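FORM 7B - TANDEM STRUCTURE REPORT

SECTION 1: FIRST PROTEIN
SEQUENCE AND TOKENS:
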Amino acid sequence: MKVSLCVLLLSVALAFTGQSRATTLPDACGKDAVNYEVTTHEGPAPPAAPAEGKAQVVLLENENQMIGPFMHATVRFGIDGTWVGATKGSSYFWTDVAPGIHHLCASWQSSLHQTKKNIDLTSFTAEPGKVYYFSAHVTVASQYSVLFGLSQLNPDQGKYRVGISKLAKSKPK
């Protein structure tokens, strides 16, 4: 009985140790401990023009189907080491950035260990007055397989995706 209890306590301790270990994310992302609560709204409005002297980055999530019963993927987006927001399901938001080189990160926010590795990165050079579209693709390939990737869209693709997506509002939990 004592041996069983010791084994059980050791197993529980090891499980909590594994969960408390922070994931090391690339420099383009934010801190792994930051998670978002996301709401989406119907009737997307086209993004406003970028602020004077800035570029605009429209960040979209393209989800081909729910990742589970009544479950949509939540994707966090980071620019230059700071999370700027998140999407849930097929949704989007935008932010303005200064001109210059920027490093973009998309990370699937999940409490499941196997999905924490779903991170993709890219970089781009922003020019004042221009709009850039990036899409995180969440594709459910099977019951046990989810594919994830980040890509830049051309303006026609980006405007189309915004038109068929919901507007995401996110706040850190």
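SECTION 2: SECOND PROTEIN
SEQUENCE AND TOKENS:
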Amino acid sequence: MQEENNHFEKLTDNIKEYVNTRYDLITLKLTQKIANIGSQIVAIIIIGTVLSMFLLFVNISIALYLSSVLNNNYAGFFIVTGFYLLLLLIFIIGKKRLILTPISNFIVKQILHDEQA
């Protein structure tokens, strides 16, 4: 009887150790995925900021050029503003297809992607 209790205790200890190991593994995988997504978000923000500054100066240059070609101080800026208003309307109309779906797909792909080296 003593030997049976000893086997039962060993089995119980092994099950506890297995559950603890699985918990630790899941915690580590989740932490890795969150770190990967977080670092990609930071990279996207940095690249987006630099790209925004670049586009700002390109748009100012285009507006000034158009203004000089049209001999009107404001016309170039109105044309560039109209272009961005049109772009805004396109994004509002196609918000789901152009913005929400690609971002959702990116996040799901990052979460489900199992990195094995």
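SECTION 3: OBSERVATIONS ON SECOND PROTEIN
Residues 2-70 form the longest helix (69 residues).
The chain has a mean pLDDT of 89.

SECTION 4: SIGNATURE
Preparer initials: ____
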